[in-house]
Amino acid sequence: MKSDITSRKDIELLVDTFYEKVRSNPELGYIFKDVAKINWETHLPRMYSFWGSILLGEYSYSGNPMQKHIALSKLTAITNTEFSMWLRLFTETVDKLFTGEKATEAKVRAENIARLMMHNIQTA
Ligand code: HEM
To answer: How remote is the CA of residue 67 from the centroid of ligand 1, in Å?
Structure first.
């Protein structure tokens, strides 16, 4: 039976599963591989900290995601199409693995941040 997101282990499972999907997605994978040339060994722990801070109150993340995504959008198109796909994969991952208050919060926060990112990219 599925349960809620309650531990660092849950966050790591969520993030790992989500980025597995992202990496093999035709619309998103190349942005990470070819445009940002991501180092997964550093990116994944940053994302554990990001979601751990949002959902578990860890205070372990420091960074400026808005600035990073604006910079990225100058290198490749990041439009409603890419954001919709990102959100679809994120929602699918949360729903496949978890259920509960934190699981819902994860989806709501992702949607709100995505909306703000889109707005900032479009007006940058
Ligand atoms: C189309 C949608 C998105 C794409 C293609 C995308 C892509 C990327 C890429 C390539 C990076 C690595 C940047 C770098 O290290 O140079 C990154 C970092 C990051 N992304 Fe996204 N992203 C998207 C949406 C989102 C959303 C909606 C969120 C939050 C809910 C998010 C949160 C983050 C965070 C926290 C980082 C780490 C920033 C840091 O290094 O501190 N991203 N993203």
So the answer is: 10
For 77-101, how does the pLDDT look when each residue is reduced to its tens digit (9 = 90+)? 999 999 999 999 999 999 999 999 9
How distant is the alpha carbon of residue 90 from its chain centre?
7
Q: Which residues, 6 or more positions from 108, have their beta carbon under 8 angstroms from its beta carbon? A: none
Could you tell me if the CB of 61 is within 6 A of ligand 1?
no
Q: Please work out whether the CB of residue 82 comes within 6 Å of at least one atom of ligand 1.
A: yes
Domains belonging to the chain, first-starting first, are 8-123 (1.10.490.10)
Q: Is the shortest distance between the CB of 78 and ligand 1 below 6 Å?
A: yes
User: ipTM for the complex?
Assistant: 0.97
Q: What is the pLDDT of residues 52-80, one digit of tens each?
A: 999 999 999 999 999 999 999 999 999 99
